[in-house]
Amino acid sequence: MKVAVSGKGGVGKTTLSALLAYWLSREGRAVLAVDADPDANLGSALGISPERLSEITPIAKMDRLIVERTGAQPGTMGQWFRLNPRVDDIPETFWVEAGGVKLVVMGGLDAGGQGCACPGSTLLKALLGHMMVEREETVIVDMEAGLEHLGRGTASAVDAFIVVVEPGRRSFQTAKSIRRLAQDIGVRNVFVVANKVKPGNRKAVREALEGLGLLGVMPYDARAIQADLEGKAAWEAGPELLRAAREIKDRILSRLAGGEDTNER
To answer: Residue 88: CA atoms inside 13 Å, Cβ hemisphere, count?
Structure first.
C-alpha cells in the first residue's frame, strides 16, 4: 500500500503520517516512512531523539550524491544531467529505523533558482517514484502542500492520497484545489482528513467537506501540542488521537479492499 499525505504547514499531516506508520507497522507490515517536506519533522513524530535527528542529512542536501547520480552540480545552471539516475540503493543506504518503521528523509529544494528541472529535483522525483512504484514495503509519504515531487508515473501508484485540513473555509478551499490537481495527474483515490476538530464543530466540518471524500476527523487535543513540544512520538499524544488515526487507517484499508461505506459519519 502506498499512501501520500499532504496539507499546508501546521494542519497535522506529519502527525497523521506518523500515526498511520505506527498502526500499519503494528499490524506486522514492513513500513517505509518518507519525509518529503522541506520542513522535515516526521522523524520527531516517529519518536527519534533530537541527537539522532541531527545526524541525518536529507537527500536533497547531499550534493556529492546528486553529482554522482545525475552528473551535474546542484545550483549550477545550464548543465547536462541524467534524467533517469540510479536510486534503487538509496533507501537502504540512508534510512534509519524507529519503532519498527524505516525513515527516509528526502527534504526539499529551498534554494533560489532550483526549479523543477534541476539535478536535485530530478533525483528526488526518481527516488520517490522508485519507492512508490517498485518497493514492496507499505510506503507513507509526508509531503508538502504542493505536488512537486509527484509526477504522473508516481501518481498512478498512489493508493490513497490524503489531504489534511483544519477547520476553516480557507483550509477547505485549499483541500479542493489539491484534490483537483491530484486527480488531474492521475491519483485515483483522494480523501480528506479534518484535524484539530472540537466536538461542537464536527457536524459543521462534515457538512462543509461533503462531497470531498471525508475519511475521518481527528480531535483537537492540547496533549498533541505538548507531545510535539517535548519531542515525544505522535502516539504518545493521547488515546483519542491514536484511536482516530486507527479508524482512518481502517477506512483506508476498507476502501482499498473494495469497501463501500468508508467515509466519516
So the answer is: 6
Q: Residue 145 to residues 8, 24, 210, 218, 260: CA-CA distances in angstroms?
A: 5, 23, 21, 19, 28
Task: List, as own/partner pairs, every contact residues 226-233 make where C-beta atoms lie below 8 angstroms and the sequence separation is at least 24, other chains included.
Answer: 228/15, 228/44, 228/45, 231/44, 231/49, 231/50, 232/47, 233/18, 233/22, 233/45, 233/46, 233/47, 233/99
Q: Tell me the sheet residues that pair with 139.
A: 2, 32
d(CA 147, CA 181): 8
Polymer length of the chain: 265
The CA-CA-CA angle for residues 69, 75, 78, to 5°, reads: 85
CA max distance for the chain: 57
> In angstroms, rounded to a whole number, what is the distance separating the alpha carbons of residues 127 and 121?
10
For residues 258 and 265, what is the distance between their CA atoms, to the nearest angstrom? Answer: 18
Phi-psi region of 12 (alpha: psi -120 to 50; beta: other; left: phi over 0): left
Q: For the whole model, what pTM was predicted?
A: 0.88
Is the separation of the CB atoms in 30 and 37 below 8 Å? Answer: no
Pairing of strands 214-219, 190-197: parallel
Task: At 59, list the grid cell.
Answer: 537527500
pLDDT digits over 99-152, tens only? 889 999 998 755 433 445 688 888 998 999 999 999 999 999 998 776 766 777
Q: Express each pLDDT in 32-59 by its tens digit.
A: 999 998 888 899 999 998 899 999 999 9
* Residue 239: per-residue pLDDT: 86
